What does this fold into?
Amino acid sequence: MKNRLISTLLAVLMLLAAIPTVRAFSDTDGHWARDYIERAVELELFNGVSSTSFEPESTMTRGMFVTVLGRMEGVDLEFWSSDSAPQFFTDVAADMYYAPYISWAFCNGIVDGTSPTTFEPDAPITREQMAKLIAFYVQKMGHEIKAPDSEQLIPDNFADAADIASWAAESVDILRQMGILNGIPNADGSISFLPLKTSSRAECATVFCRLKDALLPTSLSQTMPEAMEFVPAEVTLRMGQSQVLQPVITPPEAASVSLIWKSSDPSVMTVDKNGAVTCVGLGKAEITAYAPNGLSAACTVICSSDTLASADETRSEKCLRLFGEVVSDPKLYYAGDDGVYGAEDYARAAADMQEITVRTWDIGSDGEKYTRQFTILVHKNLAPTVQQIFEEIYNGEEKFPIHYVGGFSHGGRSEHTIGCAIDINPEENYYYKPSTGETVGSYWKPGEDPYSIPLDGEVAKIFAKYGFTQGAYWSSAVDYMHFSYFGT
It folds into this structure.
């Protein structure tokens, strides 16, 4: 009998322990928001500042507010607190309670910093800022808000609506119509919103409880990236030039996920919400794209002061661009006095070459086009131009497939020896010299073989735009694979 009583008592104690308890705070007795505060604590959205105090009239900070948003969404703290989780702001210490929530909110486009490197987590949040962040949260997480009950009192408008900032006006009005923001009564019976008033903990607890009740199940269902990389991983732009970056995302069905972009040095390279970078200062910057699950990829973007080559350059201007002087035969610039290339001459030429990585399209065994990359050597003073040429070919309408790219090489008197010639798909764009019957490659069949380069196609036009001549225009031979800066 005694054992049975003990077992029964233990069962009752375990049952009582499983029942959530509402924490009572001494400073919420008689407070207008007491019920909301107690429910917010019960929902584990808020904590007290101590075991007996909530401080309902204390100011809500940016760090606190984002923390509550993350708790409402059920953020995985184990991941966002791990060493692999991204950290964005110098004033957000990794061991602070709000740090993982700020990283999550930033990656999901809910919040931004007050500068490229700071978040100001302890700064107060105003009521109009609160409304905007809630709207961002609902939108980015794919939530829907149900209509309020018919008996709920909804103000027709706010008396101070004209004082609400334009960037927050729509968010405030939507939350008013949904019964989430009720405003503050005035003596004359009107309702004001007080957009610039800092939000108190009591006000935010109230708003979050209403939001919790109004949220419908999440409708957003996205496949998240498992891997991301930029191809190429380094891009060179000239001053003032812009280019849209796009990482290669695996699996392909995750490619439509929204990305957040950040530049390591906005004084050198800016980046907008679509990944468009603009060169605004000399130097280099890391451009990083972040997926909503915290996965990231970085691309190094170099801003060069050199202008790109163009079709209207004269031969002398081309010499000055490459060598800083006008020469009679550019192909022999690095050769010895006898006009012959030796080992030392090739080494001197190689010292002026720069390695660049370009991305192209190719055709897979299934007949579908896919992205690949090539690393080639070109003259350092033409590197930005060649980079731009291949980027335009890659982004072109034809998506011309390329399975081979050749640049600088040791081979005697040719523009390849000075890093000013590019060969593309040599097997399908052959060299042929009628006087000797000499050939390199097998054929040239534009329109029949997708790797053959049409003379009037996109590839030829893009090279010509930057001053390169296709070898097909020589009088003594045809060389459909060959694009050269000096036309030789």
The chain has a mean pLDDT of 89. Residues 2-18 form the longest helix (17 residues). The chain has three domains: 25-214, 227-304, 315-484.
